[in-house]
Specification:
The protein is of the alpha+beta class. Among the domains are: about 80 residues; about 190 residues, SGNH hydrolase (Rossmann fold). The chain has ten helices and 18 strands. The strands form five sheets. It has a five-stranded parallel beta sheet with strand order 15-14-16-17-18. Strands 3-2-5-6 form a four-stranded antiparallel beta sheet, with no helix packed on it. A four-stranded antiparallel beta sheet has the order 10-9-12-13, with no helix packed on it. Helix 6 runs parallel beside helix 8. The radius of gyration is 23 Å and the shape is globular. It starts with a helix and ends with a helix. The N terminus is likely disordered.
């Protein structure tokens, strides 16, 4: 009897696991910090994120100064010799993003630390200590065993911002603020400033220090003007621990209108990749691989219905001639029928036509369920997701303007090519390059004919 029942029990357990009733994320096995991976920084779609908490009339310039020192050899520059050699100091290091790296391991003074962004603050006894930075993939595979350190700063007075707005043709309407985590901070205060006026003042939620390096703004930045943002570290009791970050080209940007070419969509359009790299950097933004400037109207987590809902607010202020529409992946990975997705896309098309905008549809990216299963923090898609994606793509191909990426992104099984993604949902650098170059090719042909 036991032998007859056992296969049934096993089958039930496997079925429950497939439907994710056994949640590994809620009860993960204990592991060292070197083996942990961050929360997903690419699907910041919670509705309960912090709201604007204050608005004041004026603000003075940030006063802190970040002293950057070029790293020229394996040890930190001797330019720090003016500091006393005795006693612990905080050393802030930065390096370039390594493509496909999820985290970095820092080895120093017989200690190790882990960073999920391209910089770290560590306590050291000597600023001349030998330090090694290793870039790691999701499975702790080594991507670069000797990452070159670009800058070092001792006892920094303020956080260092890592946004790359100066490298973008224009900033996204849904900003993501990012910085190097401050060694002593429990959480952070962020201010968005336009021409001397603080428009928004946020307090971040608590997260572990090594995982608190970005904040997704849920309110679009639509008004024309010159902006910058700044951040400072706070204690658990909201006491001020650091100066405000310095205003610099990387956290300063200009919003202008009109924008001839805009793109609306979900996190694929918004940007980011390798699980931990947010849309505030350009390496995983497809717009960066398009030589023709395209305004980024993407918003992480959006479905076709949500994009339709925000059309008037987010698109019309920029009066675009062309609107690229890349949407649907969040529909068919969450049991929304392809028919419903097409109805929303058709309504978007009608809105564009009503306002004299030409809609250009980009086929939504496929998924890779096997990779999704491995990362654990993204829900597995329904078994028939490919059928709903196919329905959406077939409708898009019948439209006047369509960029079909199916063959470029899909393997023989119709899944997202595993070499293009770590988490099975978001294309990483090479995938974003494919999208950006396809848009560029279409735009160049369009400009030649018009």
């Amino acid at each position: 009897m036991v032998i007859k029942i056992l296969p049934v029990v096993v089958a039930i357990c496997l079925s429950l696991a497939n439907f994710q009733l056994f949640d590994d994320e809620k009860n993960p096995p204990p592991e060292s910090i070197e083996n942990k991976n961050p929360r997903n920084h690419l699907t910041q779609d919670s509705e309960h994120r912090s709201k604007v908490t204050a608005k004041v009339l004026s603000v003075s310039e940030a006063s802190s100064k970040n002293l950057t020192i070029n790293h020229t050899d394996e040890k930190i520059s001797a330019a720090h010799a003016e500091f006393e050699p005795e006693g612990e100091k905080i050393l802030r290091l930065t390096w370039d993003i390594v493509p496909d790296a999820v985290k970095y391991k820092i080895a120093y003074e017989d200690k190790t630390a882990v960073s999920y962004t391209h910089g770290v603050e560590i306590p050291v006894q000597s600023v001349n200590s030998e330090i090694h930075v290793t870039a790691l993939g999701f499975s702790n595979n080594v991507l670069d065993n000797e990452v070159e350190i670009r800058s070092a700063e001792t006892n920094p007075a303020a956080p260092l911002t890592t946004t790359e707005f100066d490298k973008m043709s224009s900033p996204p309407v849904y900003l993501v603020y990012s910085w190097i985590p401050t060694n002593s901070a429990d959480h952070y205060e962020i201010q968005l400033i336009r021409e001397g006026e603080i428009l928004r003042d946020y307090l971040t939620d608590y997260h572990p220090k090594d995982d608190n390096f970005d904040f997704y703004d849920k309110i679009p930045v639509l008004e024309v003007g010159e902006y910058y943002w700044r951040v400072r570290g706070l204690s658990a009791d909201d006491e001020i621990l650091t100066d405000w970050s310095e205003q610099a080209p990387n956290n300063t940007f200009v919003v202008k209108s009109p924008e001839t070419f805009c793109a609306i969509g979900d996190s694929i359009t918004h940007g980011g990749g390798s699980i931990s790299v947010p849309p505030s950097t350009v390496v995983y933004n497809w717009e960066n691989y398009c030589a023709v400037p395209v305004k980024n109207l993407g918003k992480s987590g959006d479905t076709t219905e949500k994009i339709l809902y925000r059309f008037e607010e987010d698109v019309l202020p920029f009066n675009p001639e062309i609107l690229f529409i890349m949407a649907g992946v969040n529909d068919y990975r969450s049991d929304i029928l392809g028919w419903d997705s097409v109805m929303n896309l058709a309504a978007l098309k009608e809105k564009c036509q009503d306002y004299g905008i030409k809609p250009v549809f980009i086929t939504p990216t496929p998924l890779n369920p096997e990779l999704i299963r491995k990362v654990r923090f993204i829900n597995l898609p329904p078994y028939d997701w490919q059928e709903h994606r196919k329905y959406i793509c077939e409708w898009m191909r019948k439209q006047e303007f369509c960029i079909d990426l199916t063959n470029a992104l899909s393997d023989a099984s119709g899944n997202l090519k595993p070499e293009l993604s770590i988490d099975g949902l978001h294309p990483d650098a090479e995938g974003k390059k494919i999208i950006g170059q396809a848009v560029e090719t279409w735009l160049k042909k369009y400009l030649e004919e018009n």
